[in-house]
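Whether sequence alone determines local backbone shape is best considered at the level of individual chains. In the encoding step, the backbone of a single protein was reduced to a row of integers, each denoting a local shape. For completeness, the protein is quoted in full, as a sequence line and a line of structure tokens.
***
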Amino acid sequence: MPRLLPLPSLSHSQSFFLSPKLTRFQSQFQLLRTFNPSLAMSVPGSSRKYFSVPGITPEEVSVASQEAFRRYLDPNLKRKGNGVVIVWFRNDLRVLDNEALLRGWVESEMVLPVYCVDPRLFGTTHYFGFPKTGALRAKFLIECLSNLKENLRSKGLDLLVRYGKPEDIITSLAKACCAHTVYAHKETCSEEILVEHLVQKGLKQVEVAHKGFSDQNKTLSPRLQLIWGSTMYHIDDLPFSTKDLPDVYTQYRKAVESKSSIRSCIKLPQSFAPPPNSATLNEIGGWGNLPTLDQLGLDEIKSDRGMHFIGGESAALGRVKEYFWKNDKLKVYKETRNGMLGSDYSTKFSPWLAFGTLSPRYIYEEVGRYENQRIANDSTYWVLFELIWRDYFRFLSVKYGNSIFHLGGPRKVASNWSQDKLLFEAWRDGRTGYPLIDANMKELSSTGFMSNRGRQIVCSFLVRDMGIDWRMGAEWFETCLIDYDPASNYGNWTYGAGVGNDPREDRYFSIPKQAKTYDPDGVYVSYWLPELKTLPKERRNFPGTRYIRQIVPLRFDSPGRNQHNIRRKGGQAKSN
């Protein structure tokens, strides 16, 4: 199963899973507490009280960021454009390896960086009316924006922040600033593409005269220039068109590895200055302020355990330095990647990749630097293997469009799914009676993160053992995950539900086997379910009557059954 598991609006007739007071998310997270180091508890089997990611000091984060910026500095870069350009930041909240930002600078005399806090991102999900963005991801976003402002300021600019729809804000700013071009990164899923179309439509209604045009007496509409920059392999460098993208990952991987090359990271100029002058800033209302959770209608989620991710490009660069260079974990990644507890069993890059504060090409180049200076082995390659999976889901979302959100998936598989409210809520809240499921779901709600292994297990349990509509699980992940992106999330859920583009990727995850293999001493489950800590280690995942009643029997739990050879036949799946 793939890793890093990391829509147009309908009526809300199916939002019965939510409290009437959901507008402030109290019903979703009423039992959760805030991250507070003074209240942090010890992790069983570890001297660590909690896991901050990155775990290095703010000073070390700053040094790592500055070092990265220096390595990619090119003082010979020159401007060659005229007039004003707007750089519309979306899911690319970084300065390093940001082609839209660099092209905007090169093609102008002045750049106006803009981020729009789109209210649609804080609405409800497509089918079941869950909150579209939970408080943990919103907090991470705010931190990313704050750090982007800092990094732009260090380069002579700032970030203008406005609350509202991009098609209104970008159009208004382009008119006020006489911008000749709006640069932005291209997205692949329907909601984001719709916004691009609306911005383009709005710009066509604007006419401005400025230095960006050769004929100074002529008025033209600003143009929207979309740049591809979200993947390790550029879409234009694939050895096939996206419509001919292989439906089997291995075929795709072997083709790009043998026939495509990865472009170098974009260099940085000495400065992106000058910023807009005072008169222009006064006309457009200043730089604006970052939103607060309260302004977004969200209550802070408070938790005293688990991982606390710090948003922003600087934190992302600090995490790369910490994991690769300081802790030297890259060389053992393949052996540890299936862990579930702690910060260093895997890279933990996915939240920063999802918000674009970390470039996949930067990771690629850091892997290469590590291999040159320390060691090249299966583990160093496997990080790139995972990034190729991430690329693959992004390209699949181009090929298959909205079908990745549909019940039958890209292959239009016909299945009878339940939407049982009580069963779903037991899964959502971690009350299934299976410690491995419940611990993972409590981690998700408390931290916005779950290990890749955990995501596969809870997905399999929801769709295979409970028979619940997979879209309910996918939309709940959309609410909670801080590393949510639509292509990876829905791509992984279609695979897990057996409706993905590759029919061979269709597996059942046996909870007893997974528990014995990946949490044999019950360290993980007893961390998230402290009531199990008093039990013998071998009983923590199998507590019997010492734990809550199991809500459903396991689908494949017959003692004599060969669990390794269960293959899909009439709704069955091969087992792990």
